[in-house]
Amino acid sequence: MAAYAKEKMFYILIGFWLILGVECFSGGSNHTLTIKTGGSVTIPCHYDEKNSLQKKYWFSEIGLIRNYINTTEKNLSVIDHPDQSLFTVTMRNLQNKHTGGYSCVVETEGQPTVTYELHLEVQSAPDVSVVSSSVSGHEGGDVSVQCFYTSRYKNKTKQWCRYKDQSCYTVGRTDTSQNPSVQISDDGRRSFTVLMTGLRLSDSGWYFCSAGEALNPVHLIVSQAEPVSGTTDNPRVSSETGISKNNNKTEVTAETKISKDLLTVWLPVSAALLLLLILVGVFTWRWKQRTKQDKHQNRERNDSRTIDAIYSKPEDPVIYNTINDECSNDITYSTIGDAPGSEAKPPAGGTVYSTVAPH
Protein backbone atom coordinates (compact mmCIF):
# COMPACT_ATOMS: atom_id res chain seq x y z
CA MET A 1 0.00 0.00 0.00
CA ALA A 2 2.85 2.35 0.85
CA ALA A 3 4.41 1.75 -2.56
CA TYR A 4 1.07 2.43 -4.25
CA ALA A 5 0.66 5.67 -2.28
CA LYS A 6 4.15 6.82 -3.28
CA GLU A 7 3.47 6.09 -6.97
CA LYS A 8 0.16 7.95 -6.81
CA MET A 9 1.88 10.91 -5.18
CA PHE A 10 4.49 10.91 -7.95
CA TYR A 11 1.80 11.12 -10.62
CA ILE A 12 0.08 13.92 -8.74
CA LEU A 13 3.34 15.87 -8.62
CA ILE A 14 3.78 15.33 -12.36
CA GLY A 15 0.29 16.68 -12.86
CA PHE A 16 1.10 19.79 -10.85
CA TRP A 17 4.23 20.32 -12.88
CA LEU A 18 2.21 20.23 -16.05
CA ILE A 19 -0.49 22.54 -14.69
CA LEU A 20 2.04 25.09 -13.47
CA GLY A 21 4.01 24.80 -16.70
CA VAL A 22 7.36 24.11 -15.04
CA GLU A 23 10.09 24.53 -17.69
CA CYS A 24 7.33 24.39 -20.24
CA PHE A 25 7.75 24.98 -23.95
CA SER A 26 7.24 28.60 -24.92
CA GLY A 27 4.13 27.69 -26.86
CA GLY A 28 2.39 26.82 -23.61
CA SER A 29 -0.82 24.77 -23.61
CA ASN A 30 -2.66 26.93 -26.11
CA HIS A 31 -2.41 24.22 -28.77
CA THR A 32 -5.59 22.27 -29.39
CA LEU A 33 -5.29 19.23 -31.61
CA THR A 34 -8.64 18.32 -33.18
CA ILE A 35 -9.08 14.77 -34.51
CA LYS A 36 -12.12 13.03 -35.98
CA THR A 37 -13.76 10.29 -33.94
CA GLY A 38 -12.20 6.93 -34.79
CA GLY A 39 -9.27 8.64 -36.50
CA SER A 40 -5.52 8.54 -35.89
CA VAL A 41 -2.80 11.11 -35.38
CA THR A 42 1.00 11.22 -35.14
CA ILE A 43 2.55 13.91 -32.94
CA PRO A 44 6.27 14.83 -33.03
CA CYS A 45 8.10 15.52 -29.78
CA HIS A 46 11.37 17.38 -30.39
CA TYR A 47 14.18 17.46 -27.85
CA ASP A 48 17.69 18.87 -27.59
CA GLU A 49 20.35 16.74 -29.28
CA LYS A 50 22.31 16.58 -26.03
CA ASN A 51 19.37 14.76 -24.43
CA SER A 52 19.27 11.94 -26.95
CA LEU A 53 20.30 9.41 -24.29
CA GLN A 54 17.93 10.69 -21.59
CA LYS A 55 14.64 9.02 -20.68
CA LYS A 56 11.72 10.32 -22.70
CA TYR A 57 8.03 9.58 -22.49
CA TRP A 58 4.53 10.62 -23.50
CA PHE A 59 2.50 11.75 -20.52
CA SER A 60 -1.29 11.63 -20.38
CA GLU A 61 -3.21 13.65 -17.78
CA ILE A 62 -5.98 11.10 -18.17
CA GLY A 63 -4.99 8.60 -15.51
CA LEU A 64 -1.52 10.16 -15.21
CA ILE A 65 -0.02 7.58 -17.53
CA ARG A 66 3.57 7.60 -18.77
CA ASN A 67 4.43 5.80 -21.99
CA TYR A 68 8.19 5.63 -22.46
CA ILE A 69 9.85 5.63 -25.87
CA ASN A 70 9.94 2.50 -28.01
CA THR A 71 6.66 1.32 -26.56
CA THR A 72 4.07 -0.24 -28.86
CA GLU A 73 0.55 -1.05 -27.78
CA LYS A 74 -2.68 -1.76 -29.63
CA ASN A 75 -3.65 1.88 -30.19
CA LEU A 76 -0.48 3.67 -29.13
CA SER A 77 3.12 3.75 -30.34
CA VAL A 78 5.97 5.85 -28.95
CA ILE A 79 9.04 5.60 -31.19
CA ASP A 80 12.34 7.42 -30.74
CA HIS A 81 14.25 8.89 -33.72
CA PRO A 82 17.59 10.02 -32.26
CA ASP A 83 18.97 10.87 -35.71
CA GLN A 84 16.23 13.52 -35.96
CA SER A 85 16.27 14.51 -32.27
CA LEU A 86 12.61 13.69 -31.79
CA PHE A 87 10.24 10.90 -30.84
CA THR A 88 6.83 10.39 -32.36
CA VAL A 89 3.59 9.43 -30.67
CA THR A 90 0.94 7.70 -32.78
CA MET A 91 -2.56 7.40 -31.33
CA ARG A 92 -5.14 5.28 -33.17
CA ASN A 93 -8.91 4.76 -33.00
CA LEU A 94 -9.42 7.88 -30.95
CA GLN A 95 -12.66 8.20 -28.99
CA ASN A 96 -14.23 10.86 -26.76
CA LYS A 97 -12.59 9.26 -23.72
CA HIS A 98 -9.19 10.27 -25.13
CA THR A 99 -10.02 13.98 -24.98
CA GLY A 100 -7.66 15.67 -22.54
CA GLY A 101 -4.17 17.05 -21.96
CA TYR A 102 -0.94 15.40 -23.13
CA SER A 103 2.75 16.29 -22.93
CA CYS A 104 6.14 15.35 -24.34
CA VAL A 105 8.55 14.90 -21.42
CA VAL A 106 12.33 14.48 -21.19
CA GLU A 107 13.94 13.54 -17.88
CA THR A 108 17.16 15.44 -17.18
CA GLU A 109 18.98 14.54 -13.98
CA GLY A 110 15.85 12.83 -12.74
CA GLN A 111 13.69 15.91 -13.24
CA PRO A 112 10.91 15.94 -15.87
CA THR A 113 11.11 18.67 -18.47
CA VAL A 114 8.05 19.28 -20.63
CA THR A 115 9.14 20.05 -24.18
CA TYR A 116 5.68 20.30 -25.69
CA GLU A 117 2.13 20.07 -24.45
CA LEU A 118 -1.27 20.14 -26.11
CA HIS A 119 -4.94 19.56 -25.55
CA LEU A 120 -6.48 16.79 -27.64
CA GLU A 121 -10.13 17.04 -28.67
CA VAL A 122 -11.88 14.19 -30.43
CA GLN A 123 -14.74 15.58 -32.56
CA SER A 124 -17.18 14.26 -35.13
CA ALA A 125 -16.28 17.27 -37.32
CA PRO A 126 -12.75 18.52 -36.47
CA ASP A 127 -12.28 22.28 -36.25
CA VAL A 128 -9.09 22.00 -38.31
CA SER A 129 -8.24 19.05 -40.57
CA VAL A 130 -6.14 18.05 -43.56
CA VAL A 131 -6.72 15.63 -46.44
CA SER A 132 -3.48 13.77 -45.73
CA SER A 133 -1.21 13.96 -42.69
CA SER A 134 1.81 13.15 -44.87
CA VAL A 135 2.92 14.86 -48.09
CA SER A 136 6.05 14.42 -50.18
CA GLY A 137 7.98 16.25 -52.88
CA HIS A 138 11.29 16.31 -54.72
CA GLU A 139 14.19 18.63 -54.14
CA GLY A 140 13.68 21.80 -56.18
CA GLY A 141 10.01 20.95 -56.73
CA ASP A 142 6.74 22.17 -55.22
CA VAL A 143 4.23 20.81 -52.74
CA SER A 144 0.74 21.97 -51.84
CA VAL A 145 -1.21 21.37 -48.62
CA GLN A 146 -4.89 22.21 -48.15
CA CYS A 147 -6.06 22.90 -44.60
CA PHE A 148 -9.77 22.89 -43.76
CA TYR A 149 -11.53 24.75 -40.94
CA THR A 150 -15.09 25.01 -39.66
CA SER A 151 -17.26 28.11 -40.00
CA ARG A 152 -16.61 29.30 -36.45
CA TYR A 153 -12.91 29.65 -37.34
CA LYS A 154 -13.61 31.65 -40.47
CA ASN A 155 -12.24 34.87 -38.97
CA LYS A 156 -9.41 33.29 -36.99
CA THR A 157 -5.76 33.73 -37.91
CA LYS A 158 -4.60 31.04 -40.33
CA GLN A 159 -1.00 29.83 -40.06
CA TRP A 160 1.44 27.26 -41.38
CA CYS A 161 4.03 26.52 -38.68
CA ARG A 162 7.01 24.30 -38.18
CA TYR A 163 7.07 22.19 -35.01
CA LYS A 164 10.82 22.29 -34.54
CA ASP A 165 11.27 26.03 -34.08
CA GLN A 166 7.65 27.23 -34.09
CA SER A 167 8.35 29.49 -37.07
CA CYS A 168 5.04 30.38 -38.70
CA TYR A 169 3.78 31.81 -41.99
CA THR A 170 0.55 33.73 -41.60
CA VAL A 171 -2.23 34.32 -44.10
CA GLY A 172 -2.42 37.97 -45.17
CA ARG A 173 0.82 39.00 -43.48
CA THR A 174 3.67 40.34 -45.60
CA ASP A 175 6.83 39.91 -43.59
CA THR A 176 10.15 40.30 -45.38
CA SER A 177 11.72 37.90 -42.90
CA GLN A 178 9.46 35.12 -44.08
CA ASN A 179 10.52 32.72 -46.79
CA PRO A 180 9.12 33.92 -50.14
CA SER A 181 8.95 30.29 -51.28
CA VAL A 182 6.02 29.73 -48.87
CA GLN A 183 2.71 31.21 -49.97
CA ILE A 184 -0.60 30.95 -48.12
CA SER A 185 -3.98 31.80 -49.63
CA ASP A 186 -7.34 31.66 -47.84
CA ASP A 187 -10.57 31.14 -49.79
CA GLY A 188 -12.46 32.86 -46.94
CA ARG A 189 -15.02 30.08 -46.65
CA ARG A 190 -13.67 26.73 -45.46
CA SER A 191 -10.01 26.20 -46.34
CA PHE A 192 -6.63 27.78 -46.91
CA THR A 193 -3.85 26.44 -49.12
CA VAL A 194 -0.11 26.36 -48.42
CA LEU A 195 2.21 26.28 -51.43
CA MET A 196 5.91 25.57 -50.88
CA THR A 197 8.15 26.06 -53.92
CA GLY A 198 11.83 25.33 -54.53
CA LEU A 199 11.87 22.58 -51.93
CA ARG A 200 15.10 21.81 -50.13
CA LEU A 201 16.08 18.63 -48.31
CA SER A 202 16.25 20.64 -45.10
CA ASP A 203 12.53 21.48 -45.50
CA SER A 204 11.69 17.91 -44.49
CA GLY A 205 10.04 17.71 -41.11
CA TRP A 206 6.85 18.22 -39.17
CA TYR A 207 4.49 21.15 -39.67
CA PHE A 208 0.98 22.03 -38.59
CA CYS A 209 -1.74 24.17 -40.08
CA SER A 210 -3.80 26.14 -37.58
CA ALA A 211 -6.83 28.38 -37.35
CA GLY A 212 -6.75 30.22 -34.08
CA GLU A 213 -5.63 27.73 -31.42
CA ALA A 214 -6.89 24.66 -33.32
CA LEU A 215 -4.29 22.76 -35.32
CA ASN A 216 -3.54 19.57 -37.21
CA PRO A 217 -0.06 18.10 -37.92
CA VAL A 218 1.43 17.38 -41.35
CA HIS A 219 4.65 15.49 -42.11
CA LEU A 220 6.60 16.78 -45.12
CA ILE A 221 9.10 14.46 -46.82
CA VAL A 222 11.50 15.97 -49.39
CA SER A 223 13.45 13.40 -51.39
CA GLN A 224 16.63 13.98 -53.35
CA ALA A 225 16.22 15.22 -56.89
CA GLU A 226 17.05 13.04 -59.88
CA PRO A 227 20.73 13.35 -60.89
CA VAL A 228 21.37 15.87 -63.66
CA SER A 229 24.08 15.98 -66.30
CA GLY A 230 27.10 18.22 -66.03
CA THR A 231 28.74 19.55 -62.91
CA THR A 232 27.40 21.39 -59.93
CA ASP A 233 29.16 24.26 -58.21
CA ASN A 234 26.47 24.74 -55.60
CA PRO A 235 27.99 23.89 -52.21
CA ARG A 236 24.54 24.10 -50.61
CA VAL A 237 23.29 21.13 -52.56
CA SER A 238 26.41 19.16 -51.70
CA SER A 239 26.20 19.93 -48.00
CA GLU A 240 22.51 19.09 -47.73
CA THR A 241 22.76 15.82 -49.58
CA GLY A 242 25.93 14.84 -47.72
CA ILE A 243 27.54 13.74 -50.97
CA SER A 244 31.00 14.90 -51.96
CA LYS A 245 30.95 15.96 -55.59
CA ASN A 246 33.82 16.73 -57.90
CA ASN A 247 33.20 19.70 -60.20
CA ASN A 248 34.76 17.81 -63.10
CA LYS A 249 32.59 14.76 -62.61
CA THR A 250 29.54 14.35 -64.79
CA GLU A 251 26.50 12.39 -63.76
CA VAL A 252 24.35 10.28 -65.99
CA THR A 253 21.09 12.05 -66.77
CA ALA A 254 17.69 10.50 -66.49
CA GLU A 255 17.33 10.87 -70.26
CA THR A 256 20.54 8.90 -70.78
CA LYS A 257 19.26 6.15 -68.53
CA ILE A 258 16.04 6.01 -70.50
CA SER A 259 18.00 5.94 -73.76
CA LYS A 260 20.12 3.07 -72.48
CA ASP A 261 17.04 1.17 -71.43
CA LEU A 262 15.46 1.72 -74.84
CA LEU A 263 18.70 0.68 -76.55
CA THR A 264 18.86 -2.47 -74.46
CA VAL A 265 15.33 -3.38 -75.48
CA TRP A 266 15.24 -2.26 -79.10
CA LEU A 267 18.69 -3.49 -80.17
CA PRO A 268 17.82 -7.21 -80.00
CA VAL A 269 14.36 -6.50 -81.38
CA SER A 270 15.83 -4.61 -84.33
CA ALA A 271 18.35 -7.40 -84.95
CA ALA A 272 15.57 -9.98 -84.94
CA LEU A 273 13.48 -7.90 -87.36
CA LEU A 274 16.48 -7.42 -89.65
CA LEU A 275 17.19 -11.16 -89.66
CA LEU A 276 13.54 -11.85 -90.41
CA LEU A 277 13.59 -9.41 -93.34
CA ILE A 278 16.75 -11.06 -94.71
CA LEU A 279 15.16 -14.50 -94.49
CA VAL A 280 12.00 -13.27 -96.20
CA GLY A 281 14.11 -11.62 -98.94
CA VAL A 282 16.15 -14.79 -99.52
CA PHE A 283 13.02 -16.94 -99.60
CA THR A 284 11.34 -14.57 -102.08
CA TRP A 285 14.41 -14.51 -104.35
CA ARG A 286 14.72 -18.31 -104.29
CA TRP A 287 11.04 -18.65 -105.05
CA LYS A 288 11.28 -16.31 -108.06
CA GLN A 289 14.36 -18.13 -109.34
CA ARG A 290 12.62 -21.46 -108.94
CA THR A 291 9.57 -20.14 -110.82
CA LYS A 292 11.72 -18.91 -113.74
CA GLN A 293 13.58 -22.23 -113.86
CA ASP A 294 10.32 -24.19 -113.90
CA LYS A 295 8.99 -22.03 -116.75
CA HIS A 296 12.20 -22.53 -118.74
CA GLN A 297 12.10 -26.29 -118.24
CA ASN A 298 8.43 -26.42 -119.29
CA ARG A 299 9.24 -24.44 -122.43
CA GLU A 300 12.09 -26.81 -123.30
CA ARG A 301 9.84 -29.83 -122.79
CA ASN A 302 7.18 -28.36 -125.09
CA ASP A 303 9.76 -27.56 -127.78
CA SER A 304 11.23 -31.07 -127.64
CA ARG A 305 7.78 -32.60 -127.93
CA THR A 306 7.08 -30.55 -131.09
CA ILE A 307 10.37 -31.50 -132.69
CA ASP A 308 9.83 -35.16 -131.86
CA ALA A 309 6.39 -34.98 -133.41
CA ILE A 310 7.80 -33.51 -136.61
CA TYR A 311 10.75 -35.88 -137.02
CA SER A 312 8.98 -38.95 -135.89
CA LYS A 313 6.65 -39.05 -139.03
CA PRO A 314 7.86 -41.84 -141.40
CA GLU A 315 8.78 -40.93 -144.98
CA ASP A 316 6.38 -41.98 -147.67
CA PRO A 317 7.79 -44.84 -149.79
CA VAL A 318 8.76 -44.16 -153.36
CA ILE A 319 6.79 -46.29 -155.83
CA TYR A 320 8.05 -46.86 -159.33
CA ASN A 321 5.76 -48.04 -162.24
CA THR A 322 6.96 -49.35 -165.58
CA ILE A 323 4.90 -48.14 -168.49
CA ASN A 324 5.36 -49.61 -172.03
CA ASP A 325 4.82 -47.16 -174.74
CA GLU A 326 3.44 -48.79 -177.87
CA CYS A 327 5.40 -46.39 -179.93
CA SER A 328 8.71 -47.02 -178.32
CA ASN A 329 10.53 -49.95 -177.01
CA ASP A 330 12.09 -47.86 -174.24
CA ILE A 331 10.96 -48.45 -170.74
CA THR A 332 9.85 -45.35 -168.94
CA TYR A 333 10.07 -45.20 -165.22
CA SER A 334 7.70 -42.94 -163.40
CA THR A 335 7.37 -42.21 -159.82
CA ILE A 336 3.91 -42.33 -158.35
CA GLY A 337 3.61 -40.35 -155.15
CA ASP A 338 1.08 -40.45 -152.40
CA ALA A 339 0.49 -44.14 -152.67
CA PRO A 340 -2.51 -45.12 -150.61
CA GLY A 341 -1.77 -46.97 -147.47
CA SER A 342 -3.92 -49.88 -148.69
CA GLU A 343 -1.62 -50.62 -151.62
CA ALA A 344 0.55 -53.63 -151.48
CA LYS A 345 3.86 -53.14 -149.87
CA PRO A 346 6.85 -52.90 -152.16
CA PRO A 347 9.25 -55.74 -152.43
CA ALA A 348 12.19 -56.01 -150.24
CA GLY A 349 14.13 -53.68 -152.44
CA GLY A 350 11.84 -50.83 -151.45
CA THR A 351 10.74 -50.17 -155.11
CA VAL A 352 7.56 -51.35 -156.80
CA TYR A 353 7.57 -51.95 -160.56
CA SER A 354 4.36 -52.16 -162.48
CA THR A 355 4.15 -53.12 -166.21
CA VAL A 356 1.52 -51.69 -168.42
CA ALA A 357 0.91 -53.99 -171.48
CA PRO A 358 0.29 -52.45 -174.88
CA HIS A 359 -3.20 -52.58 -176.12
Fold and architecture overview:
- With 359 residues, the protein is of the alpha+beta class.
- The chain has helices at residues 2-20, 235-241, 254-311, and strands spanning 32-36, 41-46, 56-60, 65-68, 71-72, 76-81, 86-91, 100-108, 111-123, 128-130, 134-138, 143-149, 158-162, 168-170, 182-186, 191-196, 205-211, 214-223, 319-324, 331-336, 355-356.
- The strands form four sheets. Strands 1, 3, 4, 8, 9, 11, 13, 14, 17 and 18 form a ten-stranded mixed beta sheet that branches. Strands 2-7-6-5 form a four-stranded antiparallel beta sheet, with no helix packed on it. The protein has a four-stranded antiparallel beta sheet with strand order 10-12-16-15, with no helix packed on it.
- Mean pLDDT is 75; it is low at 1-28, 235-253, 333-344 and 351-359.
